[in-house]
Each structure stands twice: as C-alpha cells, then as structure tokens.
C-alpha cells in the first residue's frame, strides 16, 4: 500500500508539472505580443488625460485632411478646371457642418457620459429600433474607417517607396495586424504611442500653412505644385443647371469625409480622466478647431499652388497635349502642397510626408477604440455574443478588436486597398448616426423641459435643444445628399452592411430573450429543483436560473461528504446580485465566490479544485457543470463557451470527475424531431441486412 501510494503521488505531480509546462509554453507568445495581464483594479490607470485622448479619439478627423481635400478636387475635375473655383464655397459648407456637429456632440457627452454615445441617445429617446439602426451604422463606419485610413496611408507611403505600391494589399493587411497587436496591449499604451506622430502631423500641417501664407502674402513667392502645368480633360464639359448642382453636392459629400470619427469621443467618454464629460467636451472643441484650421489651410494652399487632380489621371491629366499614361502615379493633395511650400526633398517635406503616412495608419485607432466599446455595450444589451462584453488580459475589449481587424482586412482584400473605391462606401453610416443621435437629443431636451421649473436651467436647455435641432436638420440634409450622390458609386454596399448587422443583431437578441424566458428561475418549486438520487461536490454557477436549480438538485442526490456552489467574481455588480438572490431564496447549499483580479474563469476554478485534492489526495472531486443543449449550429457560438474551455482543462486534472447537467432548450427538441424524420438514417450494419431484417431488428429493440 505505501508503495502504491507513492506511485500515485508521483504520477499526480508529473501530470501537474506537464500541465504547468504546457500552460507556460502557450502563454509566453501571448505575453510577448500583448504584455502581461493587468488586474481589474488597475483599470483606473488606463484612463486618458486630454493630451493623450486627443490623438486616440480624434486621429481620424484630424488625419482626414490628408485625403478629404483631394476627394473634393477629384469630383470637381469631372467638369474640368472651370469647376475648381467652387472649391472655397464647398470648404465653407464643410466647416459650417463641422462646427455644427462638434457643438451638437458637446451636448451629447455632457448628458450621456456612459460611453453608449449615439446608440444610447437613440435607444433611450427614439426606441430600440432607432438605437439598433445607429449601432449598425456605427459598426459599418468603424470597419470602413480602418480600411480607408490604412489604404490611404499605404498610398501616401507608396509615393515615396515603390515596393509599397506594388504590394498594396499585403502591406495594408500587415499594418492592420500590427495595429491590432498595439491595441491588444491596452488603450493607455497605444494612446501614448500614437500621440507622438499625430502631434508631429498636426504641427507639420500648421507649419506648412503658416509658412505657405508667409511666402505667398509677405514674400510674394510663386509656389507651384508639381501638377500646376497639367490640363484636365473634363469627362462632362460645360455642366450647368441641375447637373452642376448635383456635381457640387457630390463634391460636398466627398469633403464631408473630414467629419468621420467625430462621434468616437462620445463613445469613449469612460476612457477619459475625471471630470469625464468636461474633458471629453474640451477634447471635442480642440479637435474641431484643429480639423477646420488644417482643412481650410490645405484647400487654400491647393488653390494657390494650382494643384490638379483627376479621377482617372492616366487619361484625364494632359501635359504638353498628351495624356500622362498608366505609369503616372498621382500624389495626394497634401503631398503636392508640401512640395510646393517646402520644396521637393527638403527636410520638412520628408518629415511631413512620413508623419502623414503614419498618422493615416494610426487614424484607424479611432475605430479600434470605438468599435470594441460599442460592441461591449451591444453585447451587454444582448444584441451581440456575450464574449464581446468582457475585457481581455490587458483590460481592452480583445474580442471586439480582433473582430474589427478581421472585417477591415476582408474589405481591404476585396477592394484591393484602393482608398478611392473604399471612400465611396464611407460617410453614409456616420451621417445616419449623426442624424438619429441629434434627433434623439431634441426629444431628450423636450422631455426634460416638461418637468424643469428653474428659469436659468430652462434657458440652458432651450439653447441646447436649438443646437441639437439645427444639427439634426443639417446632418439629415447631408445624409440625403450623400445617399443621392453616392448610392450608385458604392454607398449601397454600406447600406447593405448596415442591414446585415441590423438583422443579425435582431436575431441574436430574439434568441437571448427566448432563452432567458425559457430558463428563468421560478419562484415556486418545479421539476428543475426536485431532489433526484445521488452524487457530490462542486457545482459551478454564474447566476440563478433553471439550469442552476437542476444542477443543484442533482448534486444534492449524490450524498457527498461536502457540497458547495462555486462562482467566480469577474463582475462585482453581478456577483453582488448573485449573493443577494442566493440569500433571498434561502438555498441551503453554501455559496463560495472566488476572486479573479484578472477576470479569468478557468484558472481560479482549476486552482481551487487542485487545492481540494491537495488537502485530501485520496478523495475524488466531482465538478458539476450546468450546460445548455441547443439544436442549431450557430447557437453553439452563443452558449457554453466558458464551460467548454473549463471542461477541457478539468479533464486533464488528476482525481477530478466532470459531470455535465444538461438543460434542453426548445431548439434541441426541434433538432431531435428533425433527426427522427430523416429517411436515410440507418443503424450501423443495417444496410447490409436489408429492409426486412432492419424492420425486425427495430421491433426487437422496441
């Protein structure tokens, strides 16, 4: 007996050592890529000051000045050089819209600082359907932000490095992967890293504007863009009347790309340091002022240096009476203006070119912060799988970050990393959210005004309502313009994406609601809580519902020496609610809650079970796990994910028995009926025996 006992202990130690080694080997690459795990109580350390929040949440609208002016000129070139004199008026319209949207969103962040942004405003004031429409629009827009920004950055970099142009798609996807890894390391680290190039870019553009204005107005220098001597062959010369108005509206809608990303600050208010709302509103104002200054400055310098752009430069740009041909690479407007102001090859030109390419890559970071946070809120509201609600090791919403990267990479691959093609899909989503959000804010103020009696507060509310009402009207008008002018150029793809998101999230919510109703714990005893026969041990629970009651009833039967319920604290509010419900119901099984500072479920349970084994090596620990039984393949993605991971680890833990207590949902019964109706089903070997013997065999077993 002592000899045998010695073998058992040694065997257990070897298995434990092997399990530890495997865990370490799989964990090391993860730690190298994204860093060590952070405790939940360190979440406050990841909050951002305004100087870091500005490049994190505003890099998209700030960097859009690198391509938005070019998009305006590209559209106007359809009518030839004669249409370029409309450029300043289009810029004025974009500036008015920018100030309107910024002023409107300053009201949003003050009234709704929880991070729900447009989704929360629309959902609260206009209803769930409007909220889901906004969420669908924002999710599509975030994916497009990554695809457009990175594709534009690759094109800017390609003007200096031919290899990048020759391998656009591979380079763009590589940048997406790199950016994903940076964001998986956490908001604070990625924000600090991204702040430097963003500020260099802003400083470079402002320096270019000031130096260009000084050279032109004070020194009287003649600054010429490299395309200044080119002529444009118009696709539709001599446009007038409605056709000209339509062209100008299309150019305006393209220039509105400068507004993309403004809403990200309202979604990211929880990431700001206190006072959160005031800091977010201040950051919005700073972003708006910088974006307007840079956009207007580049438009003015583009006009002063005679920049020429064409949608098809190989055919439509003419030099010395001949088209430039397919070998010509059209540089972005900002690159041409920088060359005219600083001189080609100068130090300032090279710094600005590098900063422009880099900040376009980093502009996608706006989406990397907005998409996962919105996905977490939608998952909490049961519109998306629950896995998107929890934070990862580095206190970032890792699953949302990976999902965003995958969707953006797919778009880049489909559209060949061509920013001109991708940008046609752009803007629709963001103006849908703008319009519904501002309409919701108007209703918000109307509701508050019905009960507010203080004159000073009423005046402030009336002023805020006027701002939001004007914002709703203006952004709604722009949305109509965008839909009319861009629908056939690619906007229909964005609308289709919104419809797919809407339908998918609606289906997920219906599924979760149906399951919640089916498994809701009754107040009076039912079959689920009747005591069965026998078994023991540790019952894993997350909340009290029918599957939990069935598992507890089954565990009572086991006549174990000890029986306890075990839960892991990954959310303090949910754990507190569980304790209160446990005590209220008077459940006679002791509840033990394991603390998990890194929000893990598997490891604390494994360590606790091992500790029970170490205390009594001869005992067997039985872990009882309640599980859903579902009938559709897609339902497996929505349920039992944590249970599967935990069961996989427990099966390799010596001395531990795992018991699944199934709870059959209604869909599982439907699947069983479908299986019974299949005509081609046959027992093993029955094909060889023939129909008569199969029938006889079936009756015998019956």
List the defining traits of the structure above:
702 residues; mainly alpha; Amino acid/polyamine transporter I; 5-stranded parallel β-sheet; 3-stranded antiparallel β-sheet; 27 helices; 6% strand; disordered N terminus; disordered C terminus
What does this structure look like?
- By secondary structure, the chain is mainly alpha-helical.
- It folds into two domains: 46-512, Amino acid/polyamine transporter I (Up-down Bundle), CATH 1.20.1740.10; 527-679.
- The protein has 27 helices and eight strands.
- The chain has helices spanning 2-34, 50-63, 68-76, 87-111, 117-126, 128-158, 162-166, 168-184, 187-219, 242-255, 264-267, 276-304, 313-316, 333-342, 347-363, 365-380, 398-414, 419-422, 428-449, 455-519, 546-556, 572-585, 602-615, 641-650, 666-677, 686-689, 691-701, and strands spanning 231-232, 317-319, 322-323, 537-540, 563-569, 591-595, 621-629, 656-664.
- The strands form two sheets. The chain has a five-stranded parallel beta sheet with strand order 6-5-4-7-8, with helices on both faces. Strands 1-2-3 form a three-stranded antiparallel beta sheet.
- A hairpin with a 2-residue loop joins strand 2 (317-319) and strand 3 (322-323).
- Helix 2 (50-63) packs across helix 16.
- The protein is elongated and about 95 Å long.
- The two termini are 48 Å apart.
- The relative contact order is 0.12.
- Residues 1-26, 40-45, 530-535 and 679-702 have low confidence and may be disordered.
């Amino acid at each position: 007996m002592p000899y045998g006992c010695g073998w058992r202990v040694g065997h257990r130690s070897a298995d434990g050592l092997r399990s530890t080694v495997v865990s370490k080997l799989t964990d090391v690459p993860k730690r190298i890529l994204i860093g060590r795990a952070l405790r939940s109580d360190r979440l406050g350390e990841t909050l951002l000051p305004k100087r870091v929040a500005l490049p994190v949440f505003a890099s998209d609208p700030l960097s859009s000045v690198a391509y938005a002016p070019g998009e305006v000129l590209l559209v106007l070139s359809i009518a030839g050089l004669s249409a370029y004199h409309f450029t300043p008026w289009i810029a004025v319209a974009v500036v008015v819209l920018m100030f309107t949207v910024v002023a409107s969103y300053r009201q949003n962040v003050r009234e709704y600082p929880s991070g729900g942004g447009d989704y929360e405003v629309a959902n609260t004031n206009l209803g769930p359907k409007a909220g889901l429409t906004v969420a669908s629009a924002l999710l599509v827009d975030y994916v497009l932000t990554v695809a457009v920004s990175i594709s534009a950055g690759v094109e800017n970099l390609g003007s200096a490095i031919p290899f990048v142009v020759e391998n656009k798609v591979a380079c763009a996807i590589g940048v997406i992967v790199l950016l994903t890894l940076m964001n998986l390391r956490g908001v604070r680290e990625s924000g600090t890293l991204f702040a430097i190039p963003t500020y260099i870019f802003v400083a470079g553009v402002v320096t270019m504007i000031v130096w260009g204005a000084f050279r032109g107005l004070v020194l009287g220098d003649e600054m010429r863009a490299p395309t200044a001597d080119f002529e444009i062959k118009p696709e539709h010369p001599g446009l007038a009347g409605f056709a000209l108005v339509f062209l100008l509206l299309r150019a305006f809608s393209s220039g509105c790309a400068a507004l993309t990303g403004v809403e990200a600050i309202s979604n990211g208010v929880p990431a700001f340091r206190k006072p959160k709302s005031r800091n977010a509103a201040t950051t919005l104002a700073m972003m708006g002022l910088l974006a307007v200054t840079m956009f207007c400055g580049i438009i003015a310098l583009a006009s002063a240096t005679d920049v020429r752009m064409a949608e098809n430069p190989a055919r439509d740009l003419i030099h010395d009476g001949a088209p430039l041909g397919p070998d010509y690479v059209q540089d972005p407007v900002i690159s041409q203006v920088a060359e005219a102001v600083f001189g080609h090859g100068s130090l300032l030109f090279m710094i600005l070119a590098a900063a422009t390419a880099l900040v376009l890559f980093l502009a996608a970071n706006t989406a990397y912060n907005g998409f996962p946070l919105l996905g977490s809120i939608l998952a909490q509201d049961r519109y998306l799988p629950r896995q998107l609600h929890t934070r990862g090791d580095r206190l970032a919403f890792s699953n949302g970050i990976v999902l965003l990267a995958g969707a953006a990479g797919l778009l880049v691959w489909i559209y060949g990393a061509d920013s001109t093609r991708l940008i046609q899909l752009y803007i629709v989503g963001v103006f849908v959210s703008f319009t519904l959000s501002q309409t919701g804010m108007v209703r918000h103020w109307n509701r508050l005004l019905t009960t507010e009696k203080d004159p000073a507060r009423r005046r402030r509310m009336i002023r805020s309502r006027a701002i939001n009402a004007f914002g709703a009207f203006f952004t709604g008008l722009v949305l109509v313009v965008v839909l009319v002018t861009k629908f056939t150029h690619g906007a229909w793809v964005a609308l289709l994406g919104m419809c797919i998101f809407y339908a998918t999230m609606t289906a997920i919510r219906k599924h979760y609601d149906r399951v919640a109703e089916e498994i809701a714990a009754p107040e009076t005893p039912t079959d689920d809580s009747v005591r069965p026969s026998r078994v023991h041990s540790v019952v894993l629970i997350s909340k009290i519902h029918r599957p939990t009651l069935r598992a507890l009833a089954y565990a009572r039967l086991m006549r174990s020496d000890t029986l306890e319920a075990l839960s892991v604290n990954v959310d303090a509010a949910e754990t507190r609610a569980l304790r209160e419900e446990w005590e209220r119901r008077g459940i006679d099984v002791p509840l033990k809650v394991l603390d998990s500072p890194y929000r893990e479920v598997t490891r604390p349970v494994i360590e606790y079970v091992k500790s029970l084994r170490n205390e009594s090596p001869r005992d067997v620990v039985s872990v009882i796990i309640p599980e859903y039984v579902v009938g559709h393949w897609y339902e497996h993605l929505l349920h039992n994910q944590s249970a599967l991971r935990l069961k996989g680890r427990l099966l390799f833990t010596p001395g531990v028995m795992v018991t699944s207590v199934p709870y059959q949902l209604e869909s599982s019964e439907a699947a069983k009926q479908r299986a019974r109706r299949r005509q081609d089903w046959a027992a093993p070997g029955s094909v060889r025996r023939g129909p008569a013997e199969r029938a006889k065999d079936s009756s015998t077993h019956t």
